[in-house]
Design goal:
The protein has two helices and 20 strands. The protein is mainly beta.
C-alpha cells in the first residue's frame, strides 16, 4: 500500500510539474524593429520580433535594426553588423562582433558594449556610436560621456569627441582584467567623425538632454535615426 501511495504521488508531481517546466521561457530583453533583412540566430526575422538573452543578431546589406530594451535604452545596428545580446539581472551587454551600433542611453541602467575585447560603459544618459573593423575601434560620444575599459587602461571619451584606437590581445590569450584586451594605440579626435557606424543621426536627437522615442527613418541605406 505504501508503494502504491508513493507511486501515485510521483505521478501527480510529474503530471503537474512537466507542463510548467516545458512552458518556462526566458525573459525578453528587447523588442526589435527592422528595415531590410535581419537574422536572429541564423533565422530571418519578421519586421517586428522579440530578442532574448543569448540571441545573436546580424543585419544584411541595406538593413537597419532598432532594439528597444526593457530598461528604456535603445540600440541601433546598421547594415553588415553582428552582435550578441547578454543580460545579467538588470544589466544588458551588447557584444559587437563586427560592424557598428548606436546606443541611446537613458542613464538609469546604461547598456554596456563589448567590442574587440574592450568594454564601453556610458557614464549616464547620452548617445554613443561604436564601430569595430578588425583591430580598429572607434567610439564617438555625441551626447554625454563614456568610459572605454581595456586590460591596460581606462579612457574617457567626453561629449563631442571620438576615440580612435587599435585593440591588441595581450600575450598569452585573455587579459587579466575580466578577459579584456589591451589598447595598442589611442587617439582622441575632437569632433564627431561623420558616418562612424553608417547611420545618420537626426540633429534633434543629440540636442535634447534626454532623447526619447528614437527610431530609424528613411526608405534606403544609409538610414537616419530621429528622436521626435
Amino acid at each position: 500500500m505504501r508503494v502504491k501511495a508513493v507511486l501515485v504521488i510521483f505521478l501527480c508531481v510529474a503530471l503537474v510539474c512537466a507542463p510548467v517546466v516545458s512552458a518556462a521561457t526566458p525573459d525578453a530583453v528587447a523588442k526589435m524593429s527592422t528595415k531590410g533583412t535581419a537574422e536572429v540566430n541564423g533565422t530571418v526575422t519578421p519586421a517586428e520580433a522579440t530578442v532574448f538573452h543569448g540571441d545573436r543578431i546580424t543585419t544584411r546589406a541595406k538593413t537597419a535594426a532598432a532594439l528597444a530594451l526593457s530598461g528604456g535604452d535603445q540600440v541601433f545596428l546598421p547594415e553588415q553588423s553582428a552582435a550578441l545580446v547578454r543580460q545579467a539581472g538588470a544589466q544588458v551587454e551588447m557584444s559587437l562582433e563586427r560592424g557598428g551600433l548606436v546606443v541611446v542611453s537613458r542613464g538609469v541602467q546604461p547598456v554596456t558594449v563589448l567590442a574587440g575585447g574592450v568594454r564601453i560603459v556610458p557614464s549616464g544618459a547620452g548617445i554613443f556610436e561604436i564601430a569595430i573593423k578588425g583591430a580598429s575601434l572607434k567610439v564617438a560620444a555625441r551626447k554625454g560621456a563614456a568610459r572605454v575599459v581595456a586590460s591596460d587602461r581606462t579612457v574617457e571619451v567626453t561629449e563631442g569627441n571620438t576615440l580612435d584606437a587599435t585593440v591588441v590581445p595581450p600575450q598569452g590569450g585573455a587579459g587579466a582584467a575580466g578577459g579584456l584586451t589591451a589598447l595598442q594605440t589611442v587617439a582622441i579626435v575632437g569632433g564627431i567623425v561623420a558616418g562612424v557606424v553608417g547611420l545618420t543621426l537626426g540633429v534633434v536627437a543629440f540636442k535634447r538632454a534626454n532623447p526619447t522615442d528614437c527610431r530609424v527613418t528613411g526608405t534606403t541605406s544609409p538610414f537616419t535615426i530621429t528622436c521626435p
